[in-house]
Structures are given as structure tokens and as C-alpha cells.
Design a protein that fits this description.
It is built from eight helices and six strands. By secondary structure, the chain is α+β, with helices and mostly antiparallel strands. The protein has a domain of about 150 residues.
């Protein structure tokens, strides 16, 4: 398994350009593999564009509907209505045109966070250093640089309910979270989504949803 992971990493890095590979030197310092995966996916989005999705993601409808035709944008998505929640822009899904500068900015934010927290001996928390917390901070900072409150029109934050239906940070925080989470548990049981009638039931329950994420958190196991 160790040899396989090493070979996989060499293969991933070999497909990046030389200039991008140089940025991956930071990955050698990360204490856990999920942090390396978080960091490298941002570089992939910059070089190749496309769509990234965690493995516990289910597409209800074609993802093309989330994107502006012919746009050169980068896309992230809100998890829920609590806009102040530090995890509210998860890194479980995003899309992009190639070479969008936000991804390099985001990767630099990760490196800076890593350096800061490492000096404090508190840099082993993936969600803070390479995950949703630093992603939200990077999105907020990028939009501030490019003219808040509207921000950069080429970095689109998709409203909750289209990519993220379930808000994992608790039913009790917001009435809309309670409603959505209860409806999700009833209409979209993950163990039965292979059944056509359950898929149609889930689509009917969430007519605006394009993608579902089940938040299995398997990366922490």
C-alpha cells in the first residue's frame, strides 16, 4: 500500500507542468495524506480546469446547468444559509476553466496557513489548513481584493441547495437547515440510490439540486 501510494503520487505530479510541480514541494511537509490531496486538487483545477467532486457525491442532473456557457469562471458552492460558518464553502466540490488565477491564490493561502500554524505546533487540522476553512477564507479574501461586496465576477459562489443540500453542522442552527436535512434523510437514503424510483423521489424532493454530497467524512478514518 505504501509503494502504491508513492507511485500514485509520482504519477499525479508527473502530469502537472514543471512550474506547477514546483509548488507541490509544500506537500512533502504535510503530516497526513488528505492534506496533500486537498492541496494538489487546487493545482489540478488551475492547470486543467473541469470539475472536482468527492467520492461520496451523487449527480442528480447534468452539472452543465451550474455553469455559464462559454465562461472562464471558477466555481465553488455554499453548504448552507449560515454565511458566517467557517466551513460554509466546502472543498468537496468545485469547477473551473483552466488557468483561473484564484486557484494559485488559494494554494498560496494554504502555504501561508501551513507556515503560520506549523510555527505554533497546530498545523495538523486538515479542515483548517487545507480544507473548507482556508477555502472560505481564500474566497472572502479574493473577493475583497477584487471589490467587495460583489467581488470578482469570474469567481462564482453557487448558492446552497444546488451542490450542497445537506448542511452537516447541525439541525438546530437554522430552520432551513432542519427542513432540508429532514427531507434529505427521508427522500434520499444513500444505500438505496441505486434504485430508479428512489433517484426520482430524490429529484422530486430537491428540484433545484444538481449534486448531492453525503458527508461520509471517510477522509478522517
Amino acid at each position: 500500500m505504501v509503494r502504491f501510494r508513492a507511485a500514485l503520487r509520482r504519477g499525479l505530479l508527473a502530469s502537472l507542468t514543471q512550474s506547477t510541480r514546483e509548488k507541490t514541494r509544500a506537500t512533502d511537509a504535510f503530516p497526513v495524506n488528505i492534506m496533500r490531496a486537498d492541496f494538489v486538487r487546487a493545482l489540478y483545477m488551475h492547470q486543467y480546469g473541469g470539475v472536482y467532486a468527492d467520492l461520496d457525491t451523487w449527480c442528480l442532473r447534468p452539472v452543465d446547468s451550474l455553469f455559464s456557457p462559454g465562461s472562464r469562471k471558477a466555481y465553488v458552492a455554499e453548504m448552507g444559509p449560515d454565511l458566517k460558518f467557517p466551513h460554509n464553502i466546502p472543498n468537496a466540490w468545485f469547477g473551473s476553466a483552466p488557468n483561473h488565477p484564484f486557484w494559485i491564490f488559494f494554494s498560496k493561502c494554504i502555504v501561508e496557513m501551513t507556515t503560520t500554524l506549523r510555527s505554533q505546533g497546530a498545523w495538523d487540522q486538515a479542515e483548517q489548513v487545507t480544507g473548507p476553512i482556508i477555502l472560505k477564507q481564500a474566497v472572502d479574501a479574493w473577493n475583497s481584493i477584487h471589490g467587495a461586496p460583489s467581488g470578482d465576477p469570474t469567481l462564482e459562489v453557487i448558492k446552497h441547495g444546488k451542490v450542497y443540500v445537506v448542511d452537516w453542522h447541525g439541525d438546530g442552527n437554522h430552520p432551513e437547515i432542519q427542513k432540508h436535512n429532514a427531507r434529505f434523510r427521508e427522500a434520499c437514503p444513500s444505500e438505496e440510490l441505486y434504485k430508479k424510483d428512489v433517484v426520482e423521489q430524490c429529484k422530486a424532493a430537491f428540484p433545484d439540486a444538481v449534486v448531492l454530497t453525503f458527508w461520509t467524512h471517510s477522509w478522517g478514518r
